[in-house]
């Protein structure tokens, strides 16, 4: 897998490079600022890019902006955004182009290397990887009333796992239930939320995220 | 202090008349206050007058202020009082503050000058009354003796009288504007505060707000120290211990060492979470990255209430203002959800007249006030450091509308390139 890394702190950048190289990835470019990131993304067109939100020269959301820009030029260019903090606002912006291949995780998630690598692969394959913190915020802000209140606790769990971007087998494994049970829960969720069923995993996740973001219904 | 250019738009005559009647009634009320002032002054000599001093002093201020208000409307020239604040407690302290405040004595001068003011105002109506009296006498078939002097029987006398009446009426008309101007100028002069009084008030305000700022910052730094000490610092110690122990036993007991490393990882995660919350409380990263615009939108997205946000800013305020504005907005929204039990809130932010204006509206049960210990008083204190003001409209039953105004300029830097949010 060809990877572009954008991280301004040398310690973390080197750590990420080593981590990814140890897991069959080729780091084609490792940059430390926004303009170079933009150039690297459009020039190398990597299989996946791992990008820090805050980068020089402005130390604002340079990385995020570069990622969003690059994705308008190369639709669906897989990008995993890492940050010290997660904002629903940013998640929404990343997801707004309705193409898959997007991830948004706290930097802490790197600790669990197995899961982190799995997230990268998922994004590279056009799936999504949303931080549990984003998803729990989304679920909480929708909690007051509405169809979400009709879900059983188990269905809510499945919804959360699905929204993070996991496939059916991964959800089954994490919740210690069978694949078949997962499918059943997902069907129930889609019926209760009045969403069109889809067999395509990543389409399905995007539909759920759009629903939770309230971007598919006028608010 | 900035003076806004005022446009001298003349009021239509009936509005001027209405204001005039208002001024007159205020003046008459003030005049009635005079005996009370004298009585309390006399009573003060035998101490028991002090409560009366406070009462009459406060009444005097209220009256003078209402007249200032009316005059401001009439002349479009701002008349802001600069009284020394009256302490909340202690009869002696309150009375002495009132007595030693030069503004009180100036108000007293205004009070005593009330007869003069009334006299000036009375000129045109008096002239008009005389004209009316003369005209009616001249036109009556069997007139009474005018001014008890002569009785105008002949036509010449009558014509002369009517001419006189007309002349008086014309004079009254001519004098109306000048007397009105004289009256308003005189009162404006008596009610305006001296430069010294304004400066004294300003210095006092600055001293108070500076003390408040220092207190607030010191408290904030103590909180940060405590949070770091009990939180992240302690966790890093635990992390080091876990790693040290794992290092010792890694060859003899790899299994336990592995468990310890997992624990170390968890501890790191907790430490990061705590640091993240701390950072958010000091200065939210999204505020750095997206400015007030993005930060308030982000706040609205994760808030427990549905919040509608509209922001019209052509640039970014200075960092400290941005931060104060953000935290004030966040606190007001929290109040709306927690105390007012609102189901919807609105935030409107714009900039005009060199002021950042933030309006937070909720549909809760209202009744919000600034008691000294309340959160609202805290917000007021914090924006006071920027000469900002807070205005609360919160009748029982709601809605609550809180407006914050902070004087500030905007940097020319555009807020943000993308913000397609609800």
From TrEMBL, chain A:
Residues 144-214 form the HTH luxR-type domain. Keywords: DNA-binding, Phosphoprotein, Transcription, Transcription regulation. Residues 2-122 form the Response regulatory domain. Pfam families: GerE, Response_reg. The modification 4-aspartylphosphate is found at residue 52. InterPro entries: CheY-like_superfamily, NreC/VraR/RcsB-like_REC, Sig_transdc_resp-reg_C-effctor, Sig_transdc_resp-reg_receiver, Tscrpt_reg_LuxR_C, WalR-like. PANTHER family: TRANSCRIPTIONAL REGULATORY PROTEIN NARL-RELATED, TWO-COMPONENT RESPONSE REGULATOR. This is Response regulator transcription factor.
From TrEMBL, chain B:
Gene3D superfamilies: 1.20.5.1930, Histidine kinase-like ATPase, C-terminal domain. The chain crosses the membrane at residues 17-38, 44-64, 108-135, 155-175. Residues 326-408 form the Histidine kinase/HSP90-like ATPase domain. Its EC number is 2.7.13.3. It catalyses: ATP + protein L-histidine = ADP + protein N-phospho-L-histidine. Residues 222-287 form the Signal transduction histidine kinase subgroup 3 dimerisation and phosphoacceptor domain. InterPro entries: HATPase_C_sf, HATPase_dom, Put_sensor_dom, Sensor_HK_TwoCompSys, Sig_transdc_His_kin_sub3_dim/P. Residues 27-191 form the Putative sensor domain. This is histidine kinase. It is an enzyme of class 2 (transferase).
């Amino acid at each position: 897998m060809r990877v572009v890394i954008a991280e301004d702190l040398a310690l973390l950048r080197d750590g990420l490079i080593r981590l990814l190289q140890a897991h069959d990835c080729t780091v084609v470019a490792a940059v430390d600022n926004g303009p170079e990131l933009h150039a690297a993304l459009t020039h190398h067109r990597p299989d996946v890019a791992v990008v820090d939100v805050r980068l020089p020269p402005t130390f604002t959301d340079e990385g995020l902006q570069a990622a969003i820009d690059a994705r308008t030029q190369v639709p669906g260019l897989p990008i995993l955004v890492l940050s010290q903090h997660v904002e629903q606002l940013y998640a929404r912006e990343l997801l707004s182009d309705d193409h898959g291949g997007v991830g948004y995780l706290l930097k802490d998630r790197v600790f669990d290397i197995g899961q982190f690598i799995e997230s990268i692969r998922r994004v590279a394959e056009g799936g999504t990887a949303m931080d549990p913190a984003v998803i729990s915020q989304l679920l909480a802000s929708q909690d007051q009333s509405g169809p979400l209140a009709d879900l059983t606790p188990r269905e809510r769990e499945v919804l959360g796992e699905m929204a993070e971007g996991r496939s059916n087998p991964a959800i089954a494994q994490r919740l210690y239930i069978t694949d078949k049970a997962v499918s059943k829960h997902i069907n129930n969720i889609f019926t209760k939320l009045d969403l069109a069923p889809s067999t395509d995993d990543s389409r399905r996740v995007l539909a759920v995220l759009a629903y939770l973001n309230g971007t598919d219904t006028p608010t | 202090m900035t003076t806004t250019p005022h446009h001298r738009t003349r009021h239509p005559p009936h509005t001027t008349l209405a204001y005039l009647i208002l001024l007159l009634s205020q003046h008459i009320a003030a005049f009635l206050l005079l005996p009370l002032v004298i009585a309390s002054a006399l009573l003060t000599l035998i101490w028991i007058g002090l409560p009366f001093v406070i009462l009459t002093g406060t009444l005097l201020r209220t009256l003078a202020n209402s007249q200032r208000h009316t005059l401001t409307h009439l002349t479009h020239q701002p008349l802001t009082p600069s009284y020394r604040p009256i302490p909340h407690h202690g009869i002696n302290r309150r009375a002495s503050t009132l007595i030693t405040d030069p503004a009180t004595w100036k108000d007293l001068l205004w009070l005593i000058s009330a007869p003069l003011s009334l006299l000036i105002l009375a000129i045109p109506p008096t002239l008009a009354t005389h004209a009316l009296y003369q005209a009616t006498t001249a036109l009556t078939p069997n007139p009474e003796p005018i001014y008890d002097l002569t009785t105008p029987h002949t036509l010449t006398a009558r014509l002369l009288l009517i001419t006189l009446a007309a002349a008086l009426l014309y004079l009254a008309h001519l004098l109306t504007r000048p007397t009105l101007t004289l009256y308003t100028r005189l009162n404006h002069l008596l009610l305006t505060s001296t430069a010294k009084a304004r400066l004294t008030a300003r210095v006092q305000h600055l001293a108070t707000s500076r003390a408040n700022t220092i207190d607030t910052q010191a408290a904030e730094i103590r909180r940060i120290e405590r949070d770091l000490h009990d939180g992240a610092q302690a966790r890093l110690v635990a992390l080091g211990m876990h790693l040290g122990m794992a290092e010792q036993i890694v060859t003899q007991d790899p299994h336990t060492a592995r468990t310890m490393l997992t624990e170390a990882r968890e501890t790191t995660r907790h430490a990061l979470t705590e640091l993240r919350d701390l950072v958010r409380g000091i200065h939210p990263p999204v505020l750095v990255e997206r400015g007030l615009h993005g930060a308030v939108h982000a706040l609205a997205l994760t808030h427990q209430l549905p919040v509608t946000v509209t922001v019209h800013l052509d640039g970014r305020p200075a960092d400290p203002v941005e931060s104060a504005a953000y935290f004030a907005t966040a606190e007001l929204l929290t109040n709306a959800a927690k105390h007012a039990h609102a189901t919807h809130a609105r935030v409107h932010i714009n900039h005009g007249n060199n002021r950042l204006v933030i309006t937070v509206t909720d549909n809760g049960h209202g009744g919000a006030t600034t008691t000294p210990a309340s959160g609202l008083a805290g917000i007021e204190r914090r924006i006071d450091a920027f000469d900002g003001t807070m205005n609360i409209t919160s009748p029982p039953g709601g809605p609550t509308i809180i407006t914050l105004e902070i004087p500030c300029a905007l940097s020319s830097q555009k807020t943000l390139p993308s913000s397609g949010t609800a």
